[in-house]
Amino acid sequence: MLFLEVCKIFNKIENTPKRLEKMDYFIELIKMAEKEGSPSNLKKICYLSIGRVYPEYENKELGIGPNILMEAIKSIGIKEKELLKSIKETGDIALSIEKLSSQIKQVSLFQKPPTLEEVYETLKKVVEIEGVNSQKKKIRHISNLFLITSPLERRYIARIILEDMRIGMNVPTILGAFSKYFNVPKEKLERIYSVVNDIGIIGAKLMLGVDLDKDQDLKLRLFRPIKPMLAQLIPSIEDAIKEIGTPQFETKYDGARIQVHKKGNAVKIYSRKLEDITNSLPEIVEEVKKLKEHSMIIEGECVAIDLNTGHPRPFQDILRRFRRKYYIDKMREEITLRAYFFDILYCNEILIDRPLRERRKILEKILFEHNNWEMEREKIEREIKSPKKIDISYKLTTDSVERVDEFYRWSLSIGHEGIMIKNPDAPYTPGSRVKTMYKFKPTLESLDVVITKAKIGMGKRKDWYGSFEISIKNGENGDLCPIGHVGSGLSEEELDKLSKMIESIKIEEIEGEVIVEPKIVLEVTYEEIQESDKYECGYALRFPRVVKIREDKSPEDINTLEDVKRIFHIQKGKGIIK
Ligand code: AMP
């Protein structure tokens, strides 16, 4: 299959705003792969159409920012001045290279146009290049690709490299196309996707005609991390009891989520963004290895603990541990970690369809702990300052508002964020914000937003970007919607760091404001959410303030317009939750 044929359809997809038409064009791609009898080509098409080379769960990135791409473009003869001018006009590096293609040095006329496999393999190579001179080597591979392709292909190669296809294809739309073409209910495909996190494998299996209910590759599997189940906000404890009956309440720890996979002596730890962070957390790995059970997947919150108080240390400390590649032993001395496990998804067999109460029992057996707050409060309080590295979450199962209120206040008094409220009868539903798990925190919910634009600061901040346009996501179509500008809450150190990050993801500058790739997630608080016509989404944050740069979260994790509407409703109808 020629890459150009695929690009021609990408172009059709790009040119229609209608989702159903996009789906129909994608079906043309499925048919092309089917005609060749190549499930593996369909797999590649799936990844490329969402701007990836590897499956979503693998978290491997091409590691090429716009600056390196520009170097590659210049190295094949396109003049910098004209390139910059065109980027300014089009707002798109990819369209600029396509437009300026006539400047590219000619290669032999006998050069055959590349196939999908050839382009894909080169891109894969680019991902895998590491070490000394890796950037130079990456540039060389990319320039070679540009030399042997046509203008349209160049557009899409550039976009894949930037991991931003801009054709409006996303996983839900591809699943929609699969559902239509292969005649399988969309909900079923969504359920499978939430476990495999790999759109390519679903396409390949559908084309192969396997039994989707039985195929082992489509089931939860050790060492293939899954997206965690997410919680919703609830206005009050009373509401939670009304809805669930007798919920299981747990302390909501102030840390970062981890998913630990173990098979015998092999242990891997994944972050909520599904990054492999095993090497950064050796003490947790050691403790998990000691657990008797052979195979398991457990989930918990990893907290940086101040052993003098037993309270969590600032969130930045946990990130310092998570992202560490060097001097890990030294850091381990400096920042003590403790993982509080709260769920188990696999224990010699898949457990996600079992109710929480059963999963919790299994987890308690494995960890030899109950941490039943009412019965073991003294023990818990004693152990809080101990050097214990792994533990089970503190729980309270009750329908008494007074007892929950006490537990909630106690959880806050030991420095954590609030409480989680879980339905003991509920299965584990990966990747979705469910109505079976809630969170209750003392302030109005903070929002996770993504930076979409940045402006240079003034006065003392003139050397940094000092003001950022922040956006949420429209849950229906995935579009980003600006909801405010934030500048406060950041230390000089953080401003410096953010500015460097912004430089590397800059797309275009218009009147002193730069548009950036939506990659940096911030957690912000605000005084309130207002209805406003300043932004298209209809809402604006009043006095937003940055709480944290959430390097542990990805743009997919940000809050949605629906969340904002819900918080607005809570704020309006019930007053601010105290
Ligand atoms: P949020 O990030 O505010 O949406 O809150 C949900 C997050 O709380 C989860 O992703 C976990 O990382 C974290 N968390 C802390 N303690 C618990 C707990 N006991 N059970 C479940 N999630 C928890």
TrEMBL record:
Gene3D superfamilies: DNA ligase, ATP-dependent, N-terminal domain, DNA ligase/mRNA capping enzyme, Nucleic acid-binding proteins. This is DNA ligase. Keywords: ATP-binding, Cell cycle, Cell division, DNA damage, DNA recombination, DNA repair, DNA replication, Ligase, Magnesium, Metal-binding, Nucleotide-binding. One of its GO terms (biological process) is DNA recombination. Its cofactor is Mg(2+). CDD domains: Adenylation_DNA_ligase_Arch_LigB. InterPro entries: ATP-dep_DNA_ligase, DNA_ligae_ATP-dep_bac/arc, DNA_ligase_ATP-dep, DNA_ligase_ATP-dep_C, DNA_ligase_ATP-dep_cent, DNA_ligase_ATP-dep_CS, DNA_ligase_ATP-dep_N, DNA_ligase_N_sf. Residues 330-474 form the ATP-dependent DNA ligase family profile domain. Belongs to the ATP-dependent DNA ligase family. It catalyses: ATP + (deoxyribonucleotide)n-3'-hydroxyl + 5'-phospho-(deoxyribonucleotide)m = (deoxyribonucleotide)n+m + AMP + diphosphate. NCBIfam families: dnl1. DNA ligase that seals nicks in double-stranded DNA during DNA replication, DNA recombination and DNA repair. It is an enzyme of class 6 (ligase). The active site is at residue 252. Pfam families: DNA_ligase_A_C, DNA_ligase_A_M, DNA_ligase_A_N. GO terms for molecular function: ATP binding; DNA binding; DNA ligase (ATP) activity; metal ion binding. Its EC number is 6.5.1.1. PANTHER family: DNA LIGASE (PTHR45674:SF7), DNA LIGASE 1/3 FAMILY MEMBER (PTHR45674). ATP binds at residues 250, 257, 272, 301, 342, 433, 439.
